[in-house]
Amino acid sequence: MNLLKAEKVSKVFGGLKAVSNFDMHIEKGELIGLIGPNGAGKTTAFNLLTGVYQPTTGVIEFDGKSVVGLKPFQITQGGIARTFQNIRLFSELSVLDNVKIAYHSHVEYGLAEAVLRVGRYFREEDEIEQKAIDFLKIFKLEHKKDEIAKNLPYGEQRRLEIARALAAKPKLLLLDEPAAGMNPQETQALMEMISWIRKEFGLTILLIEHDMNLVMGICERIYVLEYGSIIAHGTPNEIKNNPQVIKAYLGEEVE
Amino acid sequence: MRAITKKDLKIVGACVVLYAIIEALLQMNVIGSFWELNLILIAINIIMSVSLNLINGYTGQFSLGHAGFMAIGAYASAIITVKFHLPFLLAIIVGALGAGLLGFLIGLPTLRLNGDYLAIATLGLGEIIRITILNIPYVGGASGFMGIPRYTNFTWAFFVCLFTLFFIKNLVNSSHGRACISIRENEIAAEAMGIDTTRYKVIAFTIGAAFAGVAGALFAHYFYIAHPASFTFMMSFNYLTMVVMGGLGSITGSVVGAVILTFVSAALASWPEWRMIVYSIVLILLMLYRPQGLFGNVELTSLSIFKRFKGGSK
Q1: Mean pLDDT to the nearest integer, A203-217
Q2: Residues of B with CB below 8 A from A117's CB?
Q3: Could you give phi then psi for residue A94, rounded to 5 degrees?
Q4: Domain containing B73 — which CATH number?
């Protein structure tokens, strides 16, 4: 069964068709890339999948259930977590608190227990703290757990955002340009980390990326988006040799 | 026993000592009735500013109608004691529930607004509450609700204030509190992390309003009267000034802000026209030299040097 299924999804802003006839099928455990020239509608597609935008037409199903009409927080609770192209951390909070917040929807103690500090409060708070630190260890950030998030270097902010998304315990992780602004070494390390967390947590990952080395290197299948429509999809090798993709990226040959 | 519980007990202990000292001084008439009034006002103002801080500072929703909820608490509690002759504690609880319920009902639609729009909506709502009360003859209308017994004394004010501080402190240090703070930090990211932002905004607003109601109940039962003119938007600004001065997102800050501004207005009691001028100057200086407020978002207890003096600021 498909973990994520999007069929004939379109999104219209006024007179602009940002996404049209967007089709995508993701199986459990896959690592999929979504590429396309600037302004092709990749981030709009992400926003549609995560409920930030509602599709004008079409079907989006996750784990067999329709997610159309759900709010972003409900979709996250359902098992899709994401990162943002322009990093959106809780910038004035500590690195540890950033991760702890993502754990919130799995907290069971209620308001009264929190205020009176009885019942499950202490046990769960300890558990959250421990789990958050574990996530930070994976991303080599545990020595900076008390640092304010906005003071981290750029690459570490990117990693923290992924750590935070993972703490929400998703089944499907959407990464919006995770390697943007990273140097080749950092990108290489990130690629290894993405493959590793996917195995370790049994995740399915969909990522938007401009860095072709990263996409071709780790993705099993690639979807190519241009002018809001999927123009091609297939394995990295198929995509590399697809004339339509070459045309979209490099333009046509002069006769 | 856990370290945090121990720390809490120490703070409670220090506060009880502080209470005993002040109460003894009051009994021996070392502190006169003018300063007794101000001590009680400080406690009430702390409840107001800390509860407003939960809404404005922690959750980041700019509310300007806090005095309106205080009015609801004052009138609701006065009805319980004057019209039904029921005990004071019940009156405080009814005041809290009344203000909380109204906060909930008002919060649901208005918290969809952001920033300036929310500020204007809550400012208007505070005035609507006041003017509605002004036109209800059952509670005295424009002449105010008179004949309220004086139940509030320093003991009540002090311990209700202490309860409020612990309630809000424990709340913001829990996962629910972190959910509120995440809304302030980045609403889109909070939503993407699975936090029902509307729900937590309404929760913060409701709890904040309920404590304003508690403060209102204490207020009305100290001054024998609840008058609509006591709950104008100038009062809301007054509390906002305390919160901003102390630092948005710092409980200690709100306490210090409330203490300082209550003292300033007591000291300027003979020159009421100067009070607003001093307030404005204080705020302008603050904006210039310390825009994040006296404490920013830091708590006194997290500065280890001051740990043992925590009781000193109540």
Answers
A1: 88
A2: 5, 170
A3: -70, 160
A4: 1.10.3470
Higher pLDDT, B149 or A211: B149
Instruction: Tell me how many domains chain B contains.
Output: 1
Which of A77, A84, A114 is nearest residue B170 as measured by Cβ atoms?
Answer: A114
B313 versus A184: which is more confidently predicted? A184
Q: Most A CBs within 10 Å: which of B112, B164, B174, B181, as the mutation test of the A interface?
A: B174
pLDDT at position B309 is 44
User: Cβ contact (<8 Å) for A104 and B191?
Assistant: no
Structure tokens at B211: 């404590």
pLDDT confidence of residue B269: 81
* Interchain pair B188, A52: CB under 8 A: yes
Mean pLDDT of A98-102: 95
Q: Does B182 touch chain A (CB under 8 A)?
A: yes
pLDDT at B66: 95
B130: containing domain:
3-313
Q: Do A100 and B181 touch (CB under 8 A)?
A: no
Distance from CA of A21 to the nearest CA of B (A): 25
pLDDT of residue B303: 62
pLDDT in tens, B43-59: 999 999 999 999 999 99
